[in-house]
Design goal:
alpha+beta, DNA polymerase, domain 1, hpI Integrase, Chain A, 2 domains, four-stranded antiparallel β-sheet, 10 helices, 10% strand
Amino acid sequence: MAGQTNLNMTRNDWADFARWCVAHGDVAMPAAPASIVEYIAEVGRGDQAASVPRRVNAIGDWHRVSGLASPTDDDRVRVAVTRAVWQQRKAPATTLPLDATELATILGALPGGLVGARDRALLLVGFVAGLRPSEIVSLDVSDLVVVDEGLAISLMRGRIVIPYGTEPDLCPVLAWQEWLAEAGLTAGPAFRSVDRTGRLGLTRLGEKAITRMVQRAAERAGLQDSRYSALSLRLGMLASNAPARSTGRR
């Protein structure tokens, strides 16, 4: 599943470069290093600056599988990539709250299979419950129980209940149940790694892994992925001023 996703991204990145070449009157295959440098500079100025290394790798891979020498090995291209990465790191790393509209867009761009089921459940539960990243990673299966009112979540700060969603695709309770069923989870960490072959891991996701997941999901949806993190879920709920209801019980 992950391999298919990476292949699709490579195709999309190559198609984007090919369209850029047509628009600029350049040849995409074989591409001139100077054209790639100009392409990098243009991408680096936009919202997709963080994707420059991946896009350049796609250009190189497409040449190699076609039996051509990769123009991305040229020193001018290497320098341009390094400059783009440096400029991206230099940019402010302010975490943006994820609002309901952006969340719906992200959910609509999720892949299928086990990875998609996990990401959907994590995003919806984390957002609607307004969970801190540390709370998400510490959740066990036993901490989430479906009740009449929705999904009860046991946390160190108490027990909260998040309601059913008004639409099936945006319902955190249904998303949790679907992830539980597809993964076959009965105990242990609630949110776990899934390898490239779609095999479920045993270890819980860490906060950095959740940030990467949120950023990948945002990138698929065409958002500026570097501005989001695991904290964006809680910030989004706080900004909406609609926290989950606390029952005061454990």
